Amino acid sequence: MLKLLANVVKSRSFYKKMQRRLNNQFERDDFITAQLTQLPEKSKILDAGCGSQRYRKYCDHLIYKSQDFGQYTTDEKQVISNLGPDSRAEYQYGQIDYVGDIWNIEAADQSFDVILCTEVFEHIPYPNETVKEFSRLLSKNGKLILTAPSNCLRHMDPYFFYTGFSDRWYEKVLTEHGLKIESISPVGDYNSWLAVELARTLSTHSFFAKILLLPAFLFYSTRKKSTVSVNTLCMGYHVIASKI
């Protein structure tokens, strides 16, 4: 009985570990919530491209303002998305304070101590101009908390303009607009990316395909991350920058 119980516990632990490996939302949530809870009370924060305002509940100690253009409803192009949210469901926004383009926000210079922007830049036609706008809106020594994919599949079409941004893009563009990078952390690696796409294929194809691909999925899902595998390809970056 004890051996059986131990096996059950191990299997649950393995399942949770595999969930985190296949869905970088877990790691992103950990990163964002840790950053938000450390912010000084009454800091003025702009949730730029806020969408459904996933992280608003962690901002009760802050002066929270939201921004979005608020026009996305459902994906116009059908995509393979079995591992993600249902792209056919109508998107739900939270209450928005600033409605309009993220690269042209109607707020005064240095209005905010913090800008939060998560998984938005791939949906912006003018990302460089958006960084410039963030720099304008941040007070001196203000903080930018930014996450975006480095590669991704089409989603939220027709507002899908880039598959991702490399660490070199952040290093060049943020510094050009008066922002100092405090940290830039890669999420995932080449092995986990292959594991995710194999899992997607396993969930959408026939039993015969599952038999053929399962060994490859197990191989890549259990390989350890290395510097080379991260440099080759990762799923995204978590960036902290400050206004100089």
Order of adjacent strands in the largest pleated sheet: 3-2-1-4-5-7-6
Helix-strand category: alpha/beta
Number of separate structural domains = 2
Largest sheet, strands/sense/barrel: 7 strands, mixed
Sequence stretches where pLDDT stays below 50 over 5 or more residues = 1-9
The CATH topology of the largest domain is given as Rossmann fold
Q: From the 3D coordinates, which CATH architecture of the largest domain would you assign?
A: 3-Layer(aba) Sandwich
Residues in helix, %: 25-40%
Could you state the oligomeric state of the chains shown? single chain
Number of strands: 7
What order do the SSEs take from the amino end to the carboxyl end, as H and E? HHEEEEHEHEHHHE
The CATH superfamily title of the largest domain:
Vaccinia Virus protein VP39
What is the overall shape? Answer: globular
Alpha carbon gyration radius: 20 Å
GO biological process, one term: methylation
Protein name: Class I SAM-dependent methyltransferase
GO molecular function: S-adenosylmethionine-dependent methyltransferase activity
Keywords: Methyltransferase, Transferase
Report on this model:
This protein has 244 residues and is of the alpha/beta class. It has 2 domains: 2-188 and 229-243, Vaccinia Virus protein VP39 (Rossmann fold, 3-Layer(aba) Sandwich); 190-224, no CATH class. The protein is 37% helix and 20% strand. The chain contains 7 helices and 7 strands, in the order ααββββαβαβαααβ. It has helices at 2-22, 25-37, 127-137, 167-176, 190-204, 207-221, 227-232; strands at 44-48, 63-68, 98-99, 112-118, 138-149, 179-187, 236-243. Strands 3-2-1-4-5-7-6 form a 7-stranded mixed beta sheet, with helices on both faces. Helix 5 (190-204) runs antiparallel to helix 6 (207-221). The longest helix is centred in the first third of the chain and has 21 residues, at 2-22. It is globular. The termini are far apart. GO terms for molecular function: S-adenosylmethionine-dependent methyltransferase activity. Residues 46-146 form the Methyltransferase type domain. This is Class I SAM-dependent methyltransferase.
